[in-house]
From TrEMBL:
Keywords: DNA-binding, Transcription, Transcription regulation. It comes from Rouxiella silvae. Residues 19-81 form the HTH iclR-type domain. Residues 82-268 form the IclR-ED domain. This is Transcriptional regulator.
Length: 270
C-alpha cells in the first residue's frame, strides 16, 4: 500500500459514517442559496464538481426532507422556506452579548479607548455593555443599564437615522420638553438634526462632537440584523484632545469594521 492510499484509508476511518454525503448535501444547499429561482441539475453538478447522478441522488434526499423542491423551470431545483424557519430559530437563540463581546474586546484592545454597546428601548438608548479604556485615565459617566437621550449621543443618532423618515419630526414633538443644550455643540434644532441624520446614513457613521459632555467625543456605527434593521450600535468614546491629536480615520475604520463583523454574525448580508 503506497502512502497516498494509506492516507486515504486513514481519512475514511477518521470521518464519521455518512459524513461525505452530509457535507455534499450542505454544499448543494449553499450553492442553491445563490439561485432563488432555481438552478438546473447539470449546472448545479458543475458548480459542486460532482457527477450528475450523485447530485440527483442528494437532491432526492433533500427533497424528501423538505429542504429542496423542483423549480418551475424543468430540471431545476430551489430551496424551500424550511431553511428560513431554521435560520430564524437559530437567530432567536443568539445571546447578543455573547456574540458581540469578543469583537468589542478586540475593538477595546485596538483603540485602547472606552467601548460602548447599546440597543434601543422606546425613544432612548439603553447601554447594555461597556469596556473601560486600556490606556489613559479618562472614564466616561456612562454605565451599563443607563438610558440616554437619542438626540445628543452618537449611538442615539444612529438609531434615529435608520428609523422611518418622519421619526425625527415625531421625536422632536414628543420630547420637546426634554431637548436641551448640554454644550455649545448640542443639536437642538430639527432642521440641523435632519441634515445630521442624512450624513449618518450616507457615511454609515455617527459622531458625538462634545454634544453631551465637554471634552468627550464619540464615534458610533450601526449594527444591522438579518432584516437589515438597526437593533444595536457600537461606539468608542475618547477625549476630544486625543482624537484631534491622533486623527479620526483609523478610529472610524476600526469601529465600522467591528460593526460589520457583528452584523454578519447575527445574519446581516450586505
Amino acid at each position: 500500500m503506497n502512502l497516498t492510499t494509506f492516507e486515504d484509508e486513514k481519512n475514511k476511518k477518521e470521518k464519521p459514517l455518512g459524513s461525505q454525503s452530509l457535507f455534499r448535501g450542505l454544499q448543494l444547499i449553499e450553492i442553491l442559496g445563490n439561485f432563488p429561482n432555481g438552478c438546473p441539475l447539470a449546472h448545479l453538478a458543475e458548480l459542486a464538481e460532482m457527477n450528475k447522478s450523485t447530485v440527483h441522488r442528494l437532491l432526492q434526499g433533500l427533497h424528501a426532507s423538505g429542504y429542496v423542491t423542483p423549480a418551475p423551470s424543468p430540471g431545476s431545483y430551489r430551496l424551500t422556506t424550511k431553511l428560513i424557519s431554521i435560520g430564524q430559530k437559530a437567530l432567536s437563540s443568539l445571546n447578543i452579548i455573547h456574540v458581540a463581546a469578543p469583537h468589542l474586546e478586540q475593538l477595546n484592545l485596538i483603540t485602547g479607548e472606552t467601548v460602548n454597546f447599546s440597543t434601543r428601548e422606546d425613544d432612548h438608548v439603553l447601554l447594555i455593555y461597556k469596556l473601560e479604556p486600556t490606556t489613559g485615565m479618562m472614564r466616561t459617566r456612562a454605565y451599563i443599564g443607563q438610558h440616554m437621550p437619542m438626540y445628543c449621543s452618537a449611538m442615539g443618532k444612529i438609531f434615529m437615522a435608520y428609523e422611518k423618515s418622519e421619526f425625527a419630526v415625531d421625536y422632536w414633538q414628543n420630547h420637546a420638553d426634554e431637548i436641551q443644550t448640554f454644550t455649545r455643540n448640542t443639536i437642538t434644532e430639527l432642521p440641523k438634526m435632519r441634515e445630521e441624520l442624512e450624513d449618518i446614513r450616507r457615511l454609515t457613521l455617527a459622531m458625538d462632537r462634545e454634544e453631551n459632555e465637554l471634552g468627550v467625543s464619540c464615534v458610533a456605527a450601526p449594527i444591522f440584523d438579518i432584516h437589515q434593521k438597526v437593533k444595536y450600535s457600537v461606539s468608542v468614546s475618547l477625549p476630544t484632545a486625543k482624537l484631534k491629536h491622533v486623527g479620526s480615520k483609523a478610529l472610524i475604520e476600526a469601529v465600522q469594521d467591528i460593526a460589520r463583523r457583528i452584523s454578519q454574525e447575527i445574519g446581516f448580508v450586505s
